[in-house]
Amino acid sequence: MVAHPGLRLQILPMHVDDLPAVHVIERQSFTTPWPPQAYRSELESNDLAHYLSAWLGGRIVAYAGMWLMLDEAHITTFAVDPAWRRRRIGDRLLMALLDLAIARGARDATLEVRVSNIAARRLYEKFGFRPIGIRPRYYTDDGEDALVMTTPPFSETALTRRLDRLRAWVATLPEPDENGAADEATPAPGEGTGVESVGLAPDHAATRREMPDRGRATEADP
Ligand SMILES: CC(C)(COP(=O)(O)OP(=O)(O)OC[C@H]1O[C@@H](n2cnc3c(N)ncnc32)[C@H](O)[C@@H]1OP(=O)(O)O)[C@@H](O)C(=O)NCCC(=O)NCCS
Q1: What is the CA(203)–ligand 1 centre distance, in A?
Q2: How far is Cα 178 from Cα 156, in angstroms, rounded to an integer?
Q3: 10-172: which CATH topology?
């Protein structure tokens, strides 16, 4: 992990030149990674697709993507370099992705996440996503269920306030540091994540085009 001190985390639209670095993180983050060609085709041929790369010190440390389908943002991918996790890069990137969705007129956002992926579930819960159902045996590598999560409408007051608080807080975060997490210095604003306490609705209809199976996220946190 090499980053130059004093440089800022920058979140920019993903470019095809980013794909080699994206693929390195992809392979470190998922057991069945999307091939670089899948990302290339997203960037070059899918008008619905919006992908972001997070840069720090001249290298990509995270990326995320979504499809904007009519008024729904569907998050298709999200990963932080294992060497840079727990430094609030995920917080900043998700804030940027949701702000992009809102700016483009999305009404709400949805995603699928492995039931066992507590780190990602907590991140999403923090930004207002709630479980609405299960896609049984969604992940073909091991048959794990996917949890379907969605936000309330972005126009809903409680979510607007939550995102306003998070946006203001993200703006105050120190730049990510090689030496460790900034968690203690910058606790997130209020409200527990409550992953375990939220009940699950019946199965959610699978109506959208699916991307290749993501496989199990690997946990490489310190
Ligand atoms: C999930 C992931 C993106 C989080 O990125 P990150 O940069 O480490 O996250 P941050 O440091 O910004 O933390 C943001 C929030 O995520 C949650 N979180 C992150 N790592 C966590 C962990 N190991 N355990 C529990 N919660 C965790 C927390 O809610 C945290 O906020 P809090 O500390 O105020 O509670 C990262 O672990 C990752 O890339 N995992 C592999 C790929 C993946 O699972 N992608 C999602 C596919 S749906």
Answers
A1: 25
A2: 37
A3: Aminopeptidase (3.40.630)
